[in-house]
Amino acid sequence: QSPCGPIIHGLEDVLIKSTSISDIDGEKGILWYRGYRIEELARLSTYEEVSYLILYGRLPTKRELEDYINRMKKYRELHPATVEVIRNLAKAHPMFALEAAVAAEGAYDEDNQKLIEALSVGRYKAEEKELAYRIAEKLVAKMPTIVAYHYRFSRGLEVVRPRDDLGHAANFLYMMFGREPDPLASRGIDLYLILHADHEVPASTFAAHVVASTLSDLYSSVAAAIAALKGPLHGGANEMAVRNYLEIGTPAKAKEIVEAATKPGGPKLMGVGHRVYKAYDPRAKIFKEFSRDYVAKFGDPQNLFAIASAIEQEVLSHPYFQQRKLYPNVDFWSGIAFYYMGIPYEYFTPIFAMSRVVGWVAHVLEYWENNRIFRPRACYIGPHDLQYIPLEQR
Ligand code: SDX
Question: Record's family (predicted)?
Answer without folding.
Answer: Belongs to the citrate synthase family.
